[in-house]
Design brief:
Layout (H helix, E strand, L loop, with lengths): L4 E6 L3 H12 L3 E7 L3 H8 L6 E3 L2 H7 L5 E4 L7 H9 L3 E4 L7 H14 L3 E3 L7 H12 L5 E11 L3 H5 L5 H16 L5 E9 L11 E8 L4 E10 L7 E9 L3 E5 L4 E2 L1
Parallel strand pairs: 1-2, 1-4, 2-3, 4-5, 5-6, 7-10
Antiparallel strand pairs: 7-11, 8-9, 9-10, 11-12, 12-13
């Protein structure tokens, strides 16, 4: 018999409702609870999973549920710290939507709490599980590409998507570019950034509290140079909803991951 892991989701918004739906349908999982101060919203999400309870806060969750295996935290990024630390102290494994937090201080505190409690901590960098990027990583570790010389990472999307949901809540770099930063650090395992030059624009979306685009050049300790490009300002009729790619040139070969046209070359 497959062991059923009891999971709770904190946050019933856009990402939280998706996490809840996935856990509710996942073999070996039981969606035990949804947490959100908006009880009506939480109830609507919980209604899709028989027996799923609703709590108004993480404190109420930890009081009411004693045998949880995992808590998925999908609150706004600046509100990750309190539930993460409390859940860790309760001895429960944690999955946090990316980024881990909106500040370095909060990130370090979350990691320290999980290390002290000896619980597992996962961050929602889903591209590591994308078969195209995973295959590219295998090319790197196998040595077929050789030593990395240059990486170009682009992630642009329509102004009708991200800014509509998240504008003003988190900088473009922390919401979008962070995916490619994670991929670059994964591909360049063992290297670390030594210099960064970056510029951003806010001509279109500045009034809503976010940025139109970001461009950065980063030099890494092994000599690799990386160009990052991110934008939330593509028009509604753009060819791709998400125009993302990663190109890496090495001493022995190269690869190109294309998400808009879908493929690994």
């Amino acid at each position: 018999m497959i062991k059923r892991h009891r999971v709770a989701v904190i946050g019933a918004g856009f990402m939280g409702s998706m996490h809840a739906a996935i856990f509710a349908d996942m073999v070996g999982c039981e969606l035990a609870a949804i947490v959100d101060p908006n009880l009506e919203l939480a109830g609507a999400v919980a209604a899709k999973a028989p027996g799923c309870k609703v709590y108004p806060s993480h404190e109420a969750l930890l009081t009411g549920e004693r045998d949880l295996d995992l808590v998925s935290i999908c609150t706004p990024d600046n509100l990750h710290l309190a539930p993460a630390v409390a859940v860790a102290k309760a001895g429960i494994n944690i999955f946090v939507e990316k980024p881990i937090s909106s500040t370095i201080e909060d990130a370090k505190a979350i990691i320290a709490a999980c290390e002290a409690a000896k619980v597992k901590l996962g961050i929602g960098y889903l591209l590591r599980f994308d078969p195209r990027y995973a295959a590219a990583k295998e090319l790197m570790t196998s040595g077929k590409i050789g030593e990395p010389i240059h990486i170009y990472a682009r992630r642009n999307s329509a102004r009708t998507e991200g800014p509509k949901r998240y504008g003003g809540k988190l900088p473009l770099a922390l919401h979008v570019t962070v995916h490619d930063v994670d991929m670059v650090l994964w591909m360049l395992d063992g290297q670390h950034p030594v210099s960064v030059y970056a510029q951003q624009t806010d001509v279109l979306l500045g009034a809503s509290g976010t940025q139109d685009s970001l461009a950065a050049i980063v030099r890494f300790s092994g000599g690799t140079v990386v160009n990052f490009e991110s934008a939330w300002s593509l028009p509604a009729g753009a060819r791709h909803m998400i125009d993302a790619r990663m190109e890496l040139i090495g001493t022995e070969g190269s690869f190109e991951v294309q998400c808009g046209d879908s493929g690994l070359y």
